Amino acid sequence: MSEHILFLTGKLAEKQLHAILEKMQPEFTYTVHQLGLKVAALMTTDMIARRLHDTFGADRMILPGRCRGDVDALSKTFNMPIVRGPEELKDLPQYFGRKAHAYDLSSYRVKIFAEITDAPNISIDEVLKRAEYYRSNGADVIDIGCLPSTPFPHLEDTIQALKQQGFRVSIDSLDEQDLLRGGKAGVDYLLSLHESSLWIADEVAATPIIIPEKHEDLASLDRAIGVMQAKNRAFIVDPILDPLHFGFTQSIVRYHEVRKNHPDVEMMMGVGNITELTHADTTGINALLLGICSELDINHILATEVSRHACRAIREADLSRRIMLAAKQHNTLPKHIHPGLMALHEIAPFPYTLAEIKELAEQIKDPSFRIQTSAEGLHIFNRDGFHSATDPFDLYPKLHVGQDGGHAFYLGVELARAEIAWQLGKRFTQDQALAWGCASDQAEARVDLHTFKPAGTTLQKS
Prior knowledge:
alpha/beta, 8-stranded parallel barrel
């Protein structure tokens, strides 16, 4: 017997909900029940508990996504599973197409080493502050960067302070004495040793990251790997990622070659050489590099946030590694897993056509303005008229709100958001901030590290 689902909605959305469900030809049976209010987004669980007297034999109930209140308590009241639906009514087919795929993003394999590049020049308190920031964004190891020809008298104290706060720590230096000091002070990892400096690994317990003697000298890397394996010591191999136009493609080939020759060794990639040294948004760069790491089983990356354009690099790498692992585990493309890396664009920015928006506008009988976007531009409407433009300034003379400063300010903000969304190809929902994913510090942009399901906010735009 097929599942019977009860959809609750409002007057404005009822007709469209029927049409979408009929077009879906779902395997389940359903009832659409209009709860007696115009806008579905105004629905609350308390209101449902008061007004709903018949569940129509349903096995499950789906509410408008923007429905406020305690859904779990409502489930107990009606003794059935109750969930919120997708953000937009038009997303209902996708919602049911993906409902079987709930991706657990709480797991990852790639460890993020977040480097504090100027540690010798800042105080221990500042190091701890940055370390906590990096940890909150997903870093697993705090990398203490040393600077050439720069004294670091508080190196040992810095390492010990970090260890006391529960951090795993690495030290990154070209100077052998810095590495030796760091190892004796208790760091967990040494960046980086090569064939000529492997003796340091005999002096300390830290795990070395091994690099070629010269970038393309994989023979020296092979010999260093052999030495460490003969001693039965843990180590990580870094063939070195070079910047674009300075050997990037060849360095990717090196990583592939090392993985082919040494299928079981642990490897590291310094992604900062691309995120920092390429003036492009880092979300896509991180996604691609972490995808390469996933394919080659590279389980450590070194990341930095030095340039202002790379100021979300740790957070982006954190989400990227989780998405790539989920895709790999499910043997699927890294699509429709989590929207956090879609900072500037969206998969379906315009869920409604201009004709559909005009059809909705014809049902409006009150003076409140509704704002929506389509591929053609911005649309604002109420009972008194329907207006479209691509520039909000073209709309202002038609709205007649000159004497109402508060209302004019509100419409200005919302139309500005709509214009930005339309220009970039983002989803616009009136009265909601635009979603910037990992690129934003907004609370709503934070990544849910647990199961991500295709749920949203509303079955009907108000």
